[in-house]
Amino acid sequence: QVQLVESGGGLVQAGGSLRLSCEVSGLTFSSYAMGWFRQAPGKEREFVAAISRAGSSTDYVDSVKGRFTCTRDNAKKLVYLQMNTLKPEDTAVYYCAADRAWGRHINYAYWGQGTQVTVSS
Q1: Going by C-beta distance under 8 Å and a sequence separation of 6 or more, which residues neighbour residue 103?
Q2: Are 47 and 37 in contact (CB under 8 A)?
Q3: Where in 52-99 does DSSP place strands (E)?
């Protein structure tokens, strides 16, 4: 059974940092690209970051470039999202996702349950 479990969310002040983790099981992790998405209250789910199968390529939405870094550890079957210089507008439920294709598409094959990130001003 495929499972993606996010952790590391919480409440931080603007300008602070948070590191999200996603633990993956039930699939061949190295065969899947990974993505991070977020959904703020009253808004649609949006793409945040993606990382290729080997971790050699990454992509970020413009609003987080220079602040967020996505990495993966294929041996541990973990993907991370390091979030620095957080802003109140980053407040959302963050989801990790897995798909055979690397990209910004929102219809990834597998999804985690999400973890809440709240940034206070």
Answers
A1: 33, 50, 59
A2: yes
A3: 58-60, 68-73, 78-83, 92-99
Query: What is the pLDDT at residue 7?
Result: 97
**Rounded CA gap, 112 and 27, in Å?**
13
Please check whether residue 57 is in contact with residue 51, taking contact to mean a CB–CB distance below 8 angstroms. Answer: yes
pLDDT of residue 70: 98
Say what the pLDDT of residue 116 is: 98
Q: How many CB atoms lie within 10 A of CB 42?
A: 5
Check: CB of residue 117 under 8 Å from CB of residue 20: yes
Q: How many CB atoms lie within 10 A of CB 60?
A: 20
What are 34's two structure tokens?
A: 């990974």
Report d(CA 83, CA 69) in Å as an integer: 7
**Interval 32-82: pLDDT, tens:** 999 999 999 999 999 999 999 999 999 999 999 999 999 999 999 999 999
Q: Using CB atoms within 10 A of its CB, is residue 37 exposed (0-12), middle (13-18) or buried (19+)?
A: buried
